[in-house]
User: What shape does this take?
Amino acid sequence: MGSVFTVNGSNFGASQGTSTLTINGTPVTQYHYWTNNQIGAAVVPSGATTGYVVVTVNGASSPTNQYVIYTVTPTVYYYFDDALGSSRVVTNSSGTICYDADFYPFGGERAYTNTCAQNYKFTGKERDSESGLNNFGARYMSSQYGRFMSPDPSNQSVDFELPQTWNRYSYVLNNALNMVDRNGQWPTYTHTEIINEAFPGMSASDLKILNDASKEADTHQESYNSWMHGMSDGTDPNTAEAIYVAMQLGDQQITKDEAQARVEQAKWIAEGHTGISPAALQKFGNALHIITDRLSPAHAGYQPWYGQSKWNPSAWWHFLRESNPRDPNVNTAVQAGQAAFQQTFGDEFDWMMLGSQQQQEQVTHQVCSYDDDGNIIGCQ
Assistant: This one.
């Protein structure tokens, strides 16, 4: 059965060792806590039947028609997203479309079919049915006004060379066709998104090491360091030679970083530690940045890089092309990152690449209380 319920009363005894809890005679053996007056989060045993049940505690039984266990078969829906993650189409388990909609740039909805209620709309965020606001976690965003309803609680997104960041209410720098916001604090940029999607089972502290390594690599924006980002030196007049050099330097650095990561990991285990060495993760993060950058649509083919400057139009265009974490190349980069991780650390840590939020269909049971007229008073 698997569902839980709470029993309130008196004289239950201090523990199950001094009393018993049964449902239609089937013992309940799992519970969160047991006191003399309450048994909390007791798990309905698999042997309990559906329909009206009698709950017995310490020999005292409930009325025969007061509690009921019933089976709820979940309705399965499939969501189909667009490039920004907005729910454009929803079908039922048989494939019949029950929701079909387009979205305006800042999330205004234009529904053509809407026969199944669903609140996960613009960029996959939940839309409040009363206010119409999109819940981004840290704050709410209005698709009607194209802005957040409260200022950014963080100052980490302020860049004095990027005026759009000065507006603490703006949504993704007013570039809603190319960027998405993950938590209502600052736009989600591609490298962070790739790392988070590639290693959903990794701890927050380990993810931070990888992200910090990637951010550090991104500080080297000189044209002669373009190979660190899967690009070629745009200032070299010999394009073919520049591409060849970038490929060689990138391959050599990836090989070196992965080898150093394995050495650091071996030292970590030899010292009696478990898990992954922080130093090994930092080295791997350096290699990961090159591996994933090579797959960016703004980098692919070792495109020329002339260095970053607020006066360089190509740098601004590059920024906009990279800013969409829903780009199809992201999935390719995620897979490449996972393959490199497995090659570096082996199969032992494959669980870090497995999602922890995978949901399975299951039958749900509840214990409900009824009044004399057969109406439900409440369920546990």
Notes: Residues 309-318, 320-326, 356-370 have pLDDT under 50 and may be disordered. Helices lie at 190-198, 204-217, 239-270, 278-293, 313-322, 328-345.
